Amino acid sequence: MIRVEVAVAAPLDQPLTYDLEDALLPAPPGTAGDPVGLRVLVPLGGRGVTGYVLAVVAMEDVAYTVRRVTKVLDRSPLFPANMLPFFRWASSYYHYPLGLVIKAALPAGMAPRSARAIALVPGRDQELRGFFGAEPPPWVGELLTSRRLPAAASRKLLGAKATRPQIEALVEQGVLQLQDIVEADAVREKIETLFTLAPGLRAGLEHHGTETGPDDAGWSQVLPGDLKRSERQTLAALTALMAASGAAKVPARELFGRYGGARKATIALVAKGLIEQQTCRVYRTPFGEPLPPTPRPEALTPGQQQVLAQIEPALAARSYRTFLLHGITGCGKTEVYLRAAETTLALGRDVLVLVPEIALATQIEAQFLARFGETVVLLHSGLTGAERFDQWHLALSGRAKVVIGARSALFAPLADPGLIVVDEEHDSGFKQDDAFRYNGRDLAVLRGRCHDAVVLLGSATPSVTSYYHAGSGKYTLLQMKERVGDRSLPAVTVVDLSRKGRGGEKGLFRRELRQALLDNLAAGQQSLLLLNRRGFAPVLLCQDCGAPVECLHCHVALTLHRAQGRLVCHYCGYSLDQRVICSHCRSTGAMVPVGFGTERVEEEARLLLPAARIARLDSDTAADRKVFLKLLRAMHDREIDVLVGTQMIAKGHHFPHVTLVGVVWADGGLNMPDFRAAEKTFQLITQVTGRAGRGESPGRVIIQTMRPDHYSIRLAQQHQYEELYRQELELRRNPAFPPFVRLVAFHIQGEKEEEVRQGAQRLAGFCRDEKKRLQAGVEILGPAPAPLERINRNYRWQLLLKAADLDQLHMLCRQVREHRPELVAASCRLLIDVDPENMM
């Protein structure tokens, strides 16, 4: 018996202690079977939950009863023990339970728990049928067939007001029973059966020099004479497949596909010792046909050589250091990442590459696959659960040395990461906005510190905060100011969409952009059109009363997706047929679409350019990875003339034949209630501008805007990042915002509006009282309803804290967590968001 410290996958702030019987362990403690990193099923209250073993602790006498681990769920640890300090720090910094941090880090579907399943008592079928009469509900038929319902179906029935009393009555009558079960993992290892010729048969065949099949004369001298025809045909199919593949072992699915009679014949052949049957684990791969990689350059540019001259000694020193690589678009940052990865792998260490979006992971994976082959794995939410499970285990086993993915790949179980790359480090996509609200970029820096690794933050438009850290010496600034091949940055034209600049023009494209699209198509070049809003129109208005069609669960208008014929809520997923009656005036008249999205841009582009091959890339069209890859490949192969898209087309892509970029409307981000609005607008415009002119022909960019004089648009036109940085610093000094202060946001959510409001007010009062008691220099803003005050049936209020001293903010957060039950009703959720990115 040993005693272990366990972090449970439940909202508890402290780990718990359990006793673990030696018989449950996969191997004795202190050997390869050390329990640290294993998942265990442990009792918590009246149920069983998943926990994660953190440490073996001393068997001391304690005043309380120590409960026992129910079950060990793994044969070996799911993460290296050296990741525990990283998990603990993330839990402490983001004020999120440690067990839930580890659960979020692991592939989904790996947190089983105890559950209750509805089962039919043997011999009581007639009583069950009779209880419901002639028309029993569908679940009764399923129960009569399967004898026990799955945990998920049972949970749904027991939670429904209509069915729970019926089930309770049937349990009381002894017709049904509720069984305690443990839910299985949603994903598991894939095991494959393999067949091969037995060594004795192989040796006999080699001795007689036969190379054909069982009907050959040589075979008759080594095979028993009583073989059935099906057994001979099975041997013929097996040897043919081995010869064709050059492999010593053939998967059962291939053998059975070649000859259907082999299913029975293999059993007899194994029994006769003529073939051998083995099993092995198969790793499911997410890689399809990769995009064409850029060839490895024979020589580096001077800029690439200069930055690598600083990065490589830090890698060789095996010490923590963070570099901020500020390189203009098209300067060859990806090649720097690849060369640094080569150096890291040569030192025997691992490489982790993070990108803010799955789209960028797909783009960069082709380059890394071309260089490093089977040592590369992917980890992001675009994979199936099974693929992610297998990719995780390849990294855990050490077979994979390079992990590429979005923010969740940060938790990849690499034992010794020596290089951590964060591409497009400025992107808000690195911030997780649900439950565990971490920032992938910031945790990458922390993980680098934990593992003595080099962290390389790269961007053409670094975040103001990161650039400030580089100026203060926290990061080392590296700069690349020239494009590969000495290509020039594209010329940028700004078109005024305001009334004074509009004239009599109509439509989404003004004269300059229309003519440029026509000319570019005639020249055989490719064009990009950016609008960072998907759908056809963001609002559908009643023609009679002017009321918008709104989501039933959120206080937001539904977006018209004309291609689907649906009105969709982009926050909760609720949707309606586009043929609706006004809920305000009950009018059956026409509904008018107002505003525009990428679908409408695509439609107008087709009207303007009827002969052009036009495609659209946004989260609607890129939801399927295969479709997304096909579209990118078509763009690289010049099978698309005009690509319309959201920010997904703005970052990281290398399309050498794109010579025109049109920003249809540059002002969307400027209207957001966010102190970073100008910074984000500059970044998006600069990034999409960088897609033009990356090949032999020069590029051109046309920006349409209602605010041509706004500094973010004017400076993006002039490619002046440093000036943007200076202006942003001046604006953020007073009132103070990052990087001069740190922020924490408290979000209170619940279905009862009054409880949410009262909870927010109590929370604000408590924070102000604690501020006085602690004499903390914290500024407290709010409480106030969130700009989007109701999402997915939940009313939302928030409170914002600002302070130059981060320790004071953390102290207040700890006090709030300790007193949470007194401040917020049990029906409400309190979310703590450290370093918030989104205040909507």
Provide a brief overview of the structure:
With 840 residues, the protein is α/β, with parallel strands linked by helices.
Topology:
Blueprint (H helix, E strand, L loop, with lengths): L1 E7 L7 E5 L18 E6 L2 E11 L13 E2 L11 H11 L3 H8 L8 E7 L4 H8 L5 H9 L4 H9 L4 H9 L3 E7 L7 E8 L1 H10 L8 H4 L8 H17 L4 E2 H7 L3 H10 L3 E8 L19 H16 L3 E7 L5 H14 L3 E5 L3 H15 L3 E4 L5 H13 L4 E4 L11 E7 L16 H11 L3 E6 L4 H9 L3 E5 L10 E6 L2 H4 L8 H12 L3 E5 L8 E4 L16 E3 L4 E3 L6 E3 L13 E4 L3 H11 L5 E4 L7 H12 L5 E4 L12 E6 L13 H13 L10 E6 L5 H7 L3 H13 L8 E9 L2 H22 L4 E13 L2 E10 L2 H13 L1 H4 L5 E6 L6
Parallel strand pairs: 11-16, 11-17, 12-14, 12-15, 13-14, 15-16, 18-28, 19-26, 19-27, 25-26, 27-28
Antiparallel strand pairs: 1-2, 1-4, 3-4, 3-5, 6-7, 8-9, 8-10, 20-24, 21-22, 22-23, 29-31, 29-32, 30-31
What top-tier CATH class of the largest domain fits best?
Answer: Alpha Beta
In angstroms, what separates the terminal alpha carbons?
Answer: 51 Å
Assigned CATH superfamily of the largest domain:
P-loop containing nucleotide triphosphate hydrolases
The level of helicity is: 25-40%
Poorly predicted runs of 5 or more residues? none
Number of domains: 7
Total E-strand runs: 32
Query: What's the total helix number?
Result: 27
Strand arrangement, major sheet: 13-14-12-15-16-11-17
Radius of gyration over all CA atoms, rounded: 31 Å
CATH architecture of the largest domain: 3-Layer(aba) Sandwich
By CATH, the topology of the largest domain is: Rossmann fold
> Would you tell me the overall average pLDDT?
89
Shape: globular
The secondary-structure class comes to: alpha/beta
Major beta-sheet overview: 7 strands, parallel
